[in-house]
Specification:
Elements lengths: L3 E6 L3 H10 L9 E7 L10 E4 L5 E4 L5 E2 L3 H14 L10 H4 E4 L1 E8 L2 E8 L16 H25 L16 H9 L3 H7 L4 H4 L10 H18 L5 H22 L7 H22 L2 H4 L9 H7 L4 H5 L2 H9 L15 H13 L6 E4 L3 H16 L2 E4 L1 E10 L5 E10 L14 E3 L2 E3 L11 H10 L10 H9 L5 E5 L6 E4 L6 H4 L1 H6 L1 H9 L2 E2 L1 E8 L3 H4 L12 E3 L7 E4 L17 E8 L13 H19 L9 E2 L2 E2 L20 E5 L6 E2 L20 E3 L13 H16 L15
Parallel strand pairs: 1-2, 1-16, 2-10, 7-19, 16-26
Antiparallel strand pairs: 3-4, 5-9, 6-9, 7-8, 11-12, 12-15, 13-14, 17-25, 18-21, 18-24, 19-20, 20-21, 22-23
GO molecular function, one term: oxidoreductase activity
InterPro entries: FAD/NAD-bd_sf, Flavin_MAO
Pfam family, one: NAD_binding_8
């Protein structure tokens, strides 16, 4: 039996994940011949990073990249990559545990009474390896997970209320015309002795509470926990009285919350924050019941925007629906149509499921910080492993078109793949060697290694400042003018160069490289139109003062530095990334004391034709202006030692050229992610229904992969991308059999 030739187009997370799992079965080389075709000089897609050799090999990213401790499939994959690569223990980042470190300190910015307040959250570390977690749970387990957090906040709020003479009584017995409390009590009456033993401190309330549902908020919440444990044990979704009784009690708790605490929210920061957590928890549980998620699955919620759904489910509009945690989630997923911060839009099912998983399923830290660039920690190891195993990589190959055809059975298929060969290597018999050594770590450079390119092309690229990754580029015209012929074109043919195609280019690229496919496949065409993307922006600073020297004072006992979101635009997210300094090659006199990363959505309503080569440059200038504005007019809220309103002390930016004043910013790093494949994939309401499974097009040899296809996440993130890659491998090879969380939107 001849090998199947698999052409993988693109080198992002999904594409590399599919290649990894295709090579995990024994003797895979006897079944498959795999070639990855990558534009430019490096892998990574939106997660690509580079080392700037001209500036101390500093790390330059597309944006801020951290992993959540609930990324079960991602950690499972990267753990296997590092284990199989088996680096020497003396090498830097020899294991995945060295490449990732748990992070627990998260900061949200609240805007209350026309002022910014800092809301710091130090999440508890949960023992365990995130690779061994699970994203699969029953409806009642979801409810129980939320309850555990909810009870903690209810107890905290009740304690704070006591100090202000607030009542702990819940009017549980009012309006119970259907006997729901009787049903509720019948489910838990055998647990009365447990309450007596555990809550003797409530003696006065206790004796009157054991033969019915307590009207004391702390006792009734304990009884709620006992009820939910029974439901987790029996998994009974058929008895509708369970749902009705639970919804009834939640409404009573909500009434207690409003009656006792609504008047304190403007002035009492601590009470407001606990209130928000309780209110959001009650709204989420109420919404899950009202919309019958237990019967219809989380997917039924995707007809609503998340804020719209929270409001419908009873959350306080001013303080909870528009709270820092909710705004922080929109910022996390760049959830703004066209980058317009007045048009927030995230599917409620996607948002709710993601937030629950992030909060309830993590292991180790709620987040994990990479200890070098994302390219260094993710894409270098996977490239090295796949290369060693026999996967071939063809860099500098830009896909320009996929052409359809018919196979012998007259079924639609991909007949040929058109590519431009961007450069000619000096030695046609050798493949491009993409990595550079930085302090013993194999890394991707921020520019191509032109010493491997024929000199006349290398000189031309340098002279004109050509970016070989760019969509809007003058390289074809420059090349034509110099050599009097166009860039070489390759045409890969089905049955000769490939049998199967893995399309690892992002959804934004479909209209540009697959137009004929869209004309044939209406479902794929709808995906292209309905699954939206958004441009993003990022900048990085290297400073000569430590975090405390900038004026940031909120340091937890762990000493962790903040990852902050929910702040003012144009950049709503900031993270202190000092762990990366040791991976760069600064001289002692220039070594930074702090590294700061910023990112946000980038407002963009129109993308011009590819021929408009100035567009990307103008976008980059816009990002620079936005960054300077951020530093001069907004960072005084966080860094008061080096910024005041309208002023920023530019001398604290590390600048090897030692420029003066604002010009020192020119030595920092900023970028606009506007190329079709760089833009972030959104989950606007109603769009999940237009996502396709990896093998759902009408073309029988085409497999889609990326965070834009149908997964159990349906959002732009590493975990969705990994799950997509796993699904692609399974569709071709049958492996892996299981993908944690892939049925997240389906009913139990």
């Amino acid at each position: 039996m001849s090998k199947q030739k698999i052409a993988i187009l693109g080198g992002g997370v999904s594409a590399m994940t599919s290649a990894f799992y295709l090579t995990q079965q024994q003797n895979w080389q006897e079944k498959y011949d795999i070639t990855v075709y990558q534009q430019g000089w490096r892998l990574g897609g939106k997660g690509a990073s580079g080392r700037n050799a001209a500036l101390e090999h500093r790390i330059e990213e597309h944006g801020l990249h951290v992993w959540f401790g609930a990324y079960v499939n991602s950690f499972k994959t990267i753990e296997a990559v590092y284990d199989q690569l088996a680096r020497d223990p003396n090498e830097p980042l020899a294991t995945w545990q060295e490449a990732f470190k748990p992070h627990s300190f998260v900061v949200l910015q609240e805007y209350v009474n026309d002022e910014w307040d800092t809301w710091s959250i130090d999440f508890p570390e949960i023992p365990g390896n995130p690779a061994e977690g699970s994203l699969d749970f029953h409806f009642w387990e979801v409810v129980q997970f939320v309850y555990v957090w909810l009870k903690k906040f209810i107890d905290d709020l009740e304690d704070k209320g006591k100090q202000l003479n607030k009542s702990s009584k819940v009017a549980v017995a009012e309006d119970d015309d259907e006997g729901l409390l009787t049903h509720f009590y019948e489910q838990i009456k055998d647990k009365a002795d447990d309450i007596r033993d555990d809550f003797a401190e409530f003696k006065d309330d206790l004796e009157d509470s054991l033969d019915h549902i307590s009207d004391h908020i702390r006792l009734s919440s304990l009884q709620l926990g006992q009820f939910l444990q029974k439901r987790v044990d029996d998994k009974d979704l058929a008895n509708t009285k369970h749902h009705s009784a639970l919804a009834f009690l939640l409404r009573k708790m909500k009434k207690w919350l409003v009656d006792e605490f609504d008047d304190l929210l403007e002035e009492q920061d601590e009470i407001r924050r606990v209130y928000i957590c309780v209110d959001l928890g009650l709204a989420i549980l109420t919404g899950l019941l009202d919309d019958k998620v237990y019967d219809k699955g989380f997917g039924v919620l995707n007809q609503y925007d998340f804020r719209q759904w929270l409001l419908k489910s009873g959350a306080n509009d001013k303080f909870s629906v528009h709270s820092a945690p909710v705004r922080g989630f929109y910022d996390l997923v760049f959830g703004y149509e066209e980058g317009n911060f007045d048009k927030p839009n995230v599917e409620a099912g996607v948002a709710c499921l993601a937030m629950l998983r992030i909060m309830l399923c993590y292991r180790g830290g709620v987040m994990w910080k990479m200890q070098a660039g994302m390219g260094d920690t993710i894409f270098s190891p996977i490239y090295q492993l796949l290369s060693k195993q026999g996967v071939k990589f063809e860099f500098f190959h830009q896909v320009t078109d996929l052409l359809p055809g018919k196979d012998l059975l007259q079924q639609d298929c991909i007949e040929s793949i058109q590519m431009v060969q961007q450069v000619t290597l000096k030695d046609d018999n050798k493949t491009y060697q993409p990595l550079v050594d930085v302090k013993g770590l194999d890394c991707w450079p921020s520019e191509p290694l032109l010493e491997q390119v024929v000199p006349e092309q290398a000189a031309l690229i340098t002279e004109h400042g050509i970016n070989l990754e760019a969509f809007w580029t003058t390289w074809p015209a420059v090349y034509q003018a110099e050599f009097d012929h166009p860039l070489p074109v390759m045409s890969l043919q089905r049955g000769v160069d490939f049998d199967q195609v893995i399309f690892g280019i992002s959804v934004g690229g479909l209209p540009h490289v697959a137009k004929q496919l869209l004309d044939i496949d209406e479902k794929l065409n709808m995906t292209s139109h309905k699954v939206q993307t958004v441009a993003t922006q990022a900048f990085q600073l290297w400073l000569d003062l430590p975090l405390e020297g900038l004026g940031w004072t909120d340091i937890p006992d762990s000493g962790e530095e903040p990852i902050l979101s929910g702040f003012s635009e144009p950049f709503d997210t900031w993270a202190s990334m000092d762990q990366l300094i040791c991976r760069e090659t600064w001289t002692p006199e220039l070594e930074p004391k702090n590294v700061a990363y910023f990112c946000s959505a980038l407002p963009m309503t129109h993308y011009p034709p590819q021929s408009d080569s100035d567009f990307a440059k103008q976008c980059t200038l816009t990002v620079k202006d936005n960054a300077v504005f951020k530093l001069k007019h907004q960072m005084f809220e966080l860094w008061p030692q080096i910024a005041s309103e309208g002023e920023f002390d530019w001398q604290h930016l590390i600048d090897p050229a030692n420029r003066i004043g604002e010009q020192r910013f020119d030595s920092q790093y900023w970028r606009a992610n506007v190329d079709p494949s760089e833009r972030y994939v959104l989950s606007v309401k109603g769009s999940s229904q237009f996502r396709l499974a990896t093998d759902e097009t009408c073309f029988n040899n085409l497999y889609l992969t990326g965070d834009w296809i149908k997964t159990g996440v349906n959002a732009g993130c590493v975990e969705a991308a990994v799950m997509a890659g796993m699904a692609t491998s399974r569709a071709i090879s049958g492996y892996p059999e299981q993908i944690s969380g892939e049925h997240g939107f389906d009913p139990d």
